[in-house]
Amino acid sequence: MSGRGISKKVAGLFTCFLLSVAFFSIYSSRHSTEIHFFKPVPSDAVSLKSILDLDETLNYGSRPAVQTRTSWNAPIMWELMFDANLHDKAHREANTSVAVTVFAVGRYLEAYLNTFLTSAEKHFMLGFPVTYYVFTDLPDQVQNIALAPGRKLKVVQVEKYSRWQDISMMRMKTISEVIENELQHSFSFVFCFDVDQEFKGRFGTEALGESVAMLHAHYYKLPKNRFTYDRNPKSKAFMESGDFYYHAAIFGGTCQQVKTLADFCYLNIMEDKLNGVEALWHDESHLNKYFWVHKPTKLLSPEYCWDMYIGDISDILLKRLIWAPKQYEKLRTR
C-alpha cells in the first residue's frame, strides 16, 4: 500500500474514532443548580393515540388562502383550524406535561430571558404542568419570576463557547443530554425555543405532536428555489431540494423524537467540524436536513413565530409569538 493510501486509512480511522467519542459524549451529564424529582410519565399508548387522533378533528378547509396540510398529510396549524377546548380536554385526560428548553448565554440572558419567561406564563400551555429548563453560563443572574401552580423553573449551567455559532450548534448536544438524563422520565413532550422571542397569544396544546417543525416566517410564501438550504456538497447539511424551509427557533415533539433530531444534528455538526466545514445556517441547516429525511408529523404556521418587520400580514389572524428586536452586534460573541 502506498504512503498516501496508508495516510488516508489512518485519517479515516481517526475520524471514526472522534465521531464515536462525539456519539458517546451525548450521554455525559452536566452540572445543574438544583434537582427536582418528578413522577415518571406513564407509558399509555391509548392516551397517546387519543391525542394523535385530534388531527382528524381539524378543519382543513377553514383557511382556503393558505396551505393547511403537507403532501404527507401532516397538518399545518393555523387559527380557525382547531377547537382549543377539545385539544385541552384531551391533553388533560392524558395528563400531558411539557418541558421547555431555552438557552440564555452571555448577554442574551439580561436582554431577553425575563420577557420570554413572563410572556410564556401568560400564553404558553396555560393550565398544564410546564417546567422551563434555562441553560446559561450565568446561573446566579437568573431572576425569580412568578409561576402558576404546577409550573417550575430549573436553571442548568452550561459552557459559554467563544463563538456564537458554536453556542447555537452545540445546544443540540445539551438538549440530547437533558432528555436522556431527565426529561424522558418526566414529561410527555418537549419544546425547544430561542430566547429572543415573546409570546403574544395562545400557544397551546394544539401545537403538540410527535415531531413538530416551525415554518420560517420569511420563507413560507417563497418559491423553493429561494430557500436557503446548505448547498455545499461537503457538508452533511447539504440539500438540493426540500419540502419547506424550517426555522430552528422552535421545534418540539415527544422526548424520543426530539432526542433523535438533536442526535442527528449534533453528530452531523461534529462530522462537518472534523472535515473543516460549517453549514450555512449552522444548526438550522442541519435541522432542515433532518426534517427532509424524517418528515415532521405537525407543522406550525408563522403565527407561532412571527417577525413584525414583515409587511404582509394578510395570513396572520393571530400573532402567537413574535421575534424580539435583534441586537446582534451588541449581544453576539464573534
TrEMBL record:
Source taxon at top rank: Eukaryota
CC cofactor note: Binds 1 Mn(2+) ion per subunit.
Binding site for an alpha-L-fucosyl-(1->2)-beta-D-galactosyl derivative: 216, 228, 284, 307
Cofactor(s) needed: Mn(2+)
Its membrane topology: Single-pass type II membrane protein
Compartments (UniProt record): Membrane
Residues engaged in binding UDP-N-acetyl-alpha-D-galactosamine: 103-105, 108, 194-196
Binding-site residues, Mn(2+): 194, 196
Any Gene Ontology biological process: carbohydrate metabolic process
Family classification: Belongs to the glycosyltransferase 6 family.
PANTHER family documented for this protein: ALPHA-1,3-GALACTOSYLTRANSFERASE 2, GLYCOSYLTRANSFERASE-RELATED
Protein name: N-acetyllactosaminide alpha-1,3-galactosyltransferase-like
Organism: Kryptolebias marmoratus
